[in-house]
Structures are given as structure tokens and as C-alpha cells.
Amino acid sequence: MTDVNAATETGRVDEDEAGGVAPLRLEFAGEWHDLPVDRPFIIGREGDLEVDDNPYLHRHFLELQHRDGLWWISNVGVRLAATISSAGGAVQSWLSPGARMPLVFERSVIVFTAGPVTYELSLHTEQAPYEVSRQVQESMSGETTVMPVSFTPLQRQLMVALAEPMLRREGVSMNELPSSSDAARRLGWTMSKFNRKLDNVCDKLDRMGVQGLRGGAGKLATNRRARLVEYAVTSQVITRADLPILDDVALRAQGASDDD
To answer: Residue 132: which pLDDT band, with cuts at 50, 70 and 90?
Structure first.
């Protein structure tokens, strides 16, 4: 989901006048990589950035390349998707297999899940063609609201329980996604209640136009938990400040009769 008012053009200087291509740097697990401008940079189980030996991860998954005056990110995999977030979470795209998009902000966060593991990396440039608009800067400071959707306390609890490893991370770029049974146990819920709440949250976001939470023909996608975590964290629907609600006994007591 993208806020069309989230960006303003900076008046990018022509590359010849600027003396070269705007450099792009990638950070993953505390290591920095300067991307080459004369060839694609491959991310996956193999390639320029060997993320992990996770068998669920494509050998070649994401490709970064400079062309037509811009840096582009392409999904060259066949099964996995990635969430691309910029402008403090106000601009978010779901990069499905075969898709590509330009990187137009100073910083972009890429999150993707392969099997039980969620990965996060970031891209940085000091010469971006777009900058965050004043409207979004104000919303990021709390003066206005970007996300026109509300969640019940129990729905927020569910999202925080699923995203807890990511929210508690300290400079770690890989996190194990909790299973449904583990998340339900963390909340003190039955599996039927957990699945009902998960249905409610996914349905609400699907109606907003968030992709990847349904598998088509009304059938919920099997990887909806991973997609929900990616969306909720990168769009800042939930943040680290929400972690205390997992231990809120009053909310758990309320949940005994809640059927939202």
C-alpha cells in the first residue's frame, strides 16, 4: 500500500553533472556492501549476498541494478515475495515474483520470509530522487494519522505476538517466525480463538487493499502469518513500544468473552 502524497521530487541532478552514479549501499546483519553499477547485484541463497543456506530461500531471489538513471530492485524468484518499505513505513510495496520497482528514497527496508525465518535488510543512498513530504514527516512525529484503520486491543495483541521476535531484535537481521500454536500459547488463547482473530485481522487488511493475505477465491493464503508480520512491522502498525501489551493481564481477561 502506497501513500501517493508521501513523496516530493527533489530535482535530481543529471548524472553527468553530478560526476557519476548515486552510490547505493546495502546493510545486512551489521555488514555493509557497496553495490556495483556495472552489473546486477544478486541476493539469495547464492550470489553477491549469500543471505542464508535456508533451503526455502531461492538461490537467486532479489536483483539490484542501476539502469535508466535509477536503482531498481527486481524479484527474480519464482515463489517468494518481498515487502519494500520507505518513508518511515508510509510507502510500502509488495514485490511479487517477476516484478520490479525503482528505489527513490534515501532509505528502503526490505523484509521477506522463507520457510520459518524472516529476513530484513536495508538500502541507503545520499542522492535520492524523492524525499519524504512534509505531510508524512508530520504523521511520523504523531501530528497526523497515516493509517486510516483501527484495530481492537486483542487484534493488536495477536500481531505483536506474531511479530515479537522482530520487535525484540537488537541489530539482528534474521528472526524465527512463531508458529500459530506458539503464538496462541503466548497469548493464553485456544487455537480456535487465535485462528478467528487472525481471520479478522487478515480480512480487515485485505479489504484495505493489502496484498498477500488471501490466496484467491476467498481462500486465505498459507503464508498469511508471515505476510501479516512483514506488513505490520514495516508499516509501523505495531512497534517495539507495543510489546508490553503481551503481558497485559486485563486484556487477556477481556479476551475470554471477546468475539471481535
So the answer is: low
157 and 134 housed in the same domain = no
Q: Quick one: 111 and 160 in the same domain? A: no
Strands 31-34 and 49-50 turn out to be unpaired
Average pLDDT over every residue of 33-57:
96
Q: Which residues pair with 85 in a beta bridge?
A: 92, 109
- HEC per residue, 54-87: CCCCCCCCEEEEEECCEEEEEECCCCCCEEEEEH
The CATH number given to whatever domain includes residue 157 is 1.10.10
Mean pLDDT of 19-29: 85
Distance CA 71, CA 127 (A): 11
State the Cα angle at 142 between 187 and 239, rounded to 5°.
25
Are 103 and 189 within one domain? no
Considering only residues 83 and 18, tell me which one the structure prediction assigns the higher pLDDT: 83
What are the pLDDT digits (tens) for 135-179?
555 554 444 344 456 899 999 999 999 999 999 987 678 889 999
